[in-house]
UniProtKB/TrEMBL annotation:
Transit peptide found in the keyword field: no
Cross-referenced InterPro entries: GlrX-like_pln_2 (IPR011905), Glutaredoxin (IPR002109), Thioredoxin-like_sf (IPR036249)
Primary localization: cytoplasm
Taxonomic lineage from the root: Eukaryota, Viridiplantae, Streptophyta, Embryophyta, Tracheophyta
Keyword match Cytoplasm: yes
Name this protein carries in UniProt: Thioredoxin superfamily protein
GO cellular component term of the entry, any: cytoplasm
């Protein structure tokens, strides 16, 4: 889990993804659509991708991607992000993290 903590440090929004995952694409598009510029790690394209994926699973991400961190806190996967969006809580969270300015 330490590897994940280092990867999300000092970044307002981090998305762990797989380049072939349609849900990852959807979540990246949603968050970017608000004007945020998330740091995206494609686990199938980075050298330590399997290690990161195991760490995400240990943190409770099932499935492991997409996994979204906002303000260095694990938000979860697509269900959690979409729930925040439906409840109009995603934008305020992005603002508090410094990912967008409105």
């Amino acid at each position: 889990m330490e590897v994940v903590t280092r990867m999300v440090a000092d970044r307002p929004v981090v998305i762990f993804s797989r380049s072939s995952c349609c849900m990852s694409h959807t979540i990246k598009t949603l968050i970017s659509g608000f004007g945020a510029n998330p740091t995206v790690y494609e686990l199938d394209e980075i050298q330590n991708g399997q290690q990161v994926e195991r760490a995400l699973q240990q943190m409770g991400c099932k499935p492991s991607v997409p996994a979204v961190f906002i303000g260095q806190q694990l938000i979860g996967g697509p269900n959690q992000v979409m729930t925040l969006q439906v409840k109009n809580q995603l934008v305020p969270l992005l603002i508090r993290a410094g990912a967008i300015w409105i």
